[in-house]
Amino acid sequence: MTSFILAAMAFASITFAQLATYSPQGENGVSYSVNVPDASASSGKGDIFFQITAPSSLQWVGLGQGGAMTGANIFIIYSDASGTNVTLSPRLGKGNFEPDYDSEAQVTLIDGTGIANGKMTANVRCANCVSWTGESMSLTDAKSNWIWAVKEGSPIGSNSQTQDLQQHTNMDSFSFDLTKARGGSTLNPFQASSPASPSSSSSASPPSSTGASGGSGAGAGEGSSGGGSEGGGKSATDKQDLAHGILMAVAFLILFPFGALSVRLFSFPGLVWVHAGIQVFAYILAIAGLGIGVVLATRKSHYQLTQAHPIIGMLVVALLFFQPILGLIHHQLYKKHHARTFWITGHIWFGRAVVVLGAINGGLGLQLADNSMKDEIAYGVVAGVVYVAWFAVVVVGAFRSKASEGETGGKLMGTNRGNGHEKRGSPGESFQ
């Protein structure tokens, strides 16, 4: 009779448990599910359950509560020393570096955990995932922020929860609709699962494959709900991140360098004002990007305004305010004296230094946003090509100017400037 009652309770738990499930696009076999028991959802505290499944060929797999690595409550699994089970390592994200082991985490591996048939599965009960160091999560949030990460490579094979870990190969953010993860008792909602077929938990509760939306660069899994697209939509935070990155990249990798080069590569009436217009437009984009960045950095979920990237960003935009002033002072003096002044030297080198700092800060921003290594490399390559080309033109132009008396930095290919034609548009008024 007792066995019958226990079996009935288990069946009831399986039948009514709801799982919100998310599978990152391009990461075959990686899946994350979460369940919030009715009692926990009603009281706003108590146990929650989550499941991590992934190919056992991966070095480690992680799931975290929060919208970014900083401030996240992170759970990482990897193969244990036997190779037949997993080690669960709870950690706290404190920045863009290896997260620290969290000895305060109350997590337990429950039935169904293990490694079999090329799959590792971790079924986890967490007793204190509603709040952690400086952060918290609502168990009824329809857009609960989470992050995921994977590391390719040889299995770790360690029982240590403080194992040193290499940086992830890929990661992203996404959201769970916890209203669709509610249901069931405090029994194991993954009881129908087994390491041999981890995804079978979805078949135990048909609604379980709903309630997740993907972040930037990752789609939702089978049956997941997204923001208007089949593969999962971007959250508002993701869109802000993208807008901030695009605005700053256009300003510091395209417009500022091109505006600076324009006075060396071209020679036509009104060139000075074209140069000024490009730079002012770039500055407007930088201000807009800064505004979005400040909004992102001051989010309650992961306050980042004290990090290097936002601090340098605010400094760069503030310093650039003085660039048009220096240029205008030089322009007025040039019209009076028809000669280079101290102000143009300051305008040129101050501008170069600040714009280069802004470009470098873009790389710091990618790290702060937990972008993949390939994105950081791509940014570095593009920035490197642009700025090497810029300064190559500057150096070649400087040598040509010294070699040709009267040449004041006109067209790079040898246009003579300073031959009495300055009044056509002041091409002799070199700003670079």
What does this structure look like?
This protein is an alpha+beta fold. The chain has helices at 2-16, 38-43, 201-204, 236-265, 271-297, 308-320, 323-337, 342-368, 373-403; strands at residues 20-22, 31-35, 48-55, 60-65, 73-79, 86-92, 100-101, 107-109, 114-116, 119-126, 131-132, 135-136, 144-151, 170-176, 212-214. It has a seven-stranded antiparallel beta sheet, with no helix packed on it. Strands 1, 2, 3, 8, 9 and 10 form a six-stranded antiparallel beta sheet that branches. Strand 4 (60-65) and strand 5 (73-79) form a beta hairpin. Helix 6 runs antiparallel to helix 8. Mean pLDDT is 78; it is low at 1-15, 193-210, 216-233 and 405-428.
Topology:
Elements lengths: L1 H15 L3 E3 L8 E5 L2 H6 L4 E8 L4 E6 L7 E7 L6 E7 L7 E2 L5 E3 L4 E3 L2 E8 L4 E2 L2 E2 L7 E8 L18 E7 L24 H4 L7 E3 L21 H30 L5 H27 L10 H13 L2 H15 L4 H27 L4 H31 L29
Antiparallel strand pairs: 1-2, 2-3, 3-10, 4-5, 4-13, 5-6, 6-7, 8-10, 9-10, 11-12, 13-14, 14-15
